[in-house]
Amino acid sequence: MNSTLAWDDLRLVLAIADAGTLSGAGRRLGLSHATLFRRLNGVEERLGVRLFDRARSGYSATLAGEEIAETARHVERRVQDVERRVVGRDLKPSGTVRVTTLDSLLIGFLAPVFAGFQAVHGGISLEVAISNQLFSLSKREADVAIRPTLAPDETLVGRKIGTLAFAVYGLRDLACGRAHGSGFAGPWIGPDEAMVYPDLVAWMRQQGVDDRCRYRVDSVLGMYAAVGAGQGVAVLPCYLGDPDPSLVRLSEPVVEMATDLWILTHPDLRTSARVRALTGFVADAVKRKVALLAGST
């Protein structure tokens, strides 16, 4: 009987061990619950050993399952290391680049930049991962990250390409638009607990407006939409608020909210022609829009 473990078997065991459930592993691997159940039973039958204890709360790895999962984790790291080194050796800008960024940056600035990039570099396909969570560049979840941060990951390489400013905005048609800054007496819009935004939370508390927040949302783009719907005023990125004719800026840029915009990649990918083409193009686009991003238009 053939008991050799294939790489797909190792990935299967690792995904279940990490997720603790078949549904969680299925989302990671893109497989159905039934397929995972059948494949796991097949692996256990070939090996003649139980890899997981099943319970209502989920799947917990046995000693044999833990050993296979750890081996799979080691193999996965080696495969990712090799992949990064090979990808970084391409000589011409072609292939696919996976980029991660924020929803507000894509809508407010990057979407036309990416369109312009592909018009120039027709041989490069872009995959854009929109998330407020940090993707792991070392695990090749993304090749390039374009994000605001004051402390970029020291294991990555890249450069600061601009500064992002934030100010208070309200709907232009409302009479409250005549008020200014934190002196606005009406309702405010702010982040909810799920949105990790300590600088904004601290500023709103310092200005005494947090208690007047009547609408909370878990993304900057959601706050922007709420301001546009007339639900109150909010601190928004100037690259979103200034170009919108329906909004009016009610304050100077909030100094405490200013943050750096970085473009980052893994060291193994910095010589990749397609990655360099994208990072250079985005950096040039930021230079042309520096006033908009810095709130000085």
Describe the structure.
By secondary structure, the chain is α/β, with parallel strands linked by helices. The protein has three domains: 7-87, Arc Repressor Mutant, subunit A (Orthogonal Bundle), CATH 1.10.10; 95-154 and 269-289, Periplasmic binding protein-like II (D-Maltodextrin-Binding Protein, domain 2, 3-Layer(aba) Sandwich); 166-257, Periplasmic binding protein-like II (D-Maltodextrin-Binding Protein, domain 2). Helix content is 41%, strand content 22%. The chain is built from ten helices and twelve strands. It has helices at 7-19, 22-29, 33-47, 63-87, 103-120, 198-206, 220-228, 238-241, 273-288, 290-294, and strands spanning 52-55, 58-61, 95-101, 124-130, 144-148, 157-164, 166-171, 188-191, 213-217, 234-237, 247-249, 259-265. The strands form four sheets. Strands 4-3-5-12-6 form a five-stranded mixed β-sheet. A three-stranded antiparallel β-sheet has the order 10-7-11. α5 links the parallel β3 (95-101) and β4. The radius of gyration is 24 Å and the shape is globular. The protein starts with 6 loop residues before the first helix and ends with a helix. The mean pLDDT is 86.
